[in-house]
Amino acid sequence: xxxxxxxxxxxxxxxxxxxxxxxxxxxxxxxxxxxxxxxxxxxxxxxxxxxxxxxxxxxxxxxxxxxxxxxxxxxxxxxxxxxxxxxxxxxxxxxxxxxxxxxxxxxxxxxxxxxxxxxxxxxxxxxxxxxxxxxxxxxxxxxxxxxxxxxxxxxxxxxxxxxxxxxxxxxxxxxxxxxxxxxxxxxxxxxxxxxxxxxxxxxxxxxxxxxxx
Length: 213
Description:
Elements: E1 6-11, H1 17-28, E2 31-34, H2 36-45, H3 49-57, H4 63-70, H5 75-80, H6 85-88, H7 96-112, E3 116-119, H8 123-126, E4 133-139, H9 142-153, H10 157-179, E5 191-194, H11 200-211
Parallel strand pairs: 1-3, 1-4, 2-3, 4-5
Helix pairs in contact: 1-11, 3-10, 9-10
């Protein structure tokens, strides 16, 4: 692929998709983008990644929960504190819609800068219509995902199952709400890889073969 290109990696938690995306970017010698927006929100608002993902996954507006997590003080106190730099940067009308639009802007900005591999962030939909774009879905069986999370995060099987159920629900809600599609629909992707029977390096090799590298 000689022209600038974008590869999006959608993945189930515990499938190894993020690692595959990173290795693929290294092989191609291009930028790897993984949750850059979440990282920026985390720094600016002092939220954890898990908290942001949980809030985004809710079906309702999350402003009230967001405010309580960022600054657990009465709303009236926030409104009169005009000297606070922290509050001045916070938009009281902020909603999950604003987060999606911010993600859209940032992802398109990244893609505009040159060839890249982007993990997550509904890239298959947000960057729809871009030339030289390849969309990939990395999946795996529940048992495989549980085993990987147990190993990577040193969790019990029960805790690993809770992580999978929580993240799956949040991502499903978010993607359906803003794309009107299921992230599991194979028609959204050029390549779908099941990691039950292949290694991450084999997955990267398959993708490179598809790209004609």
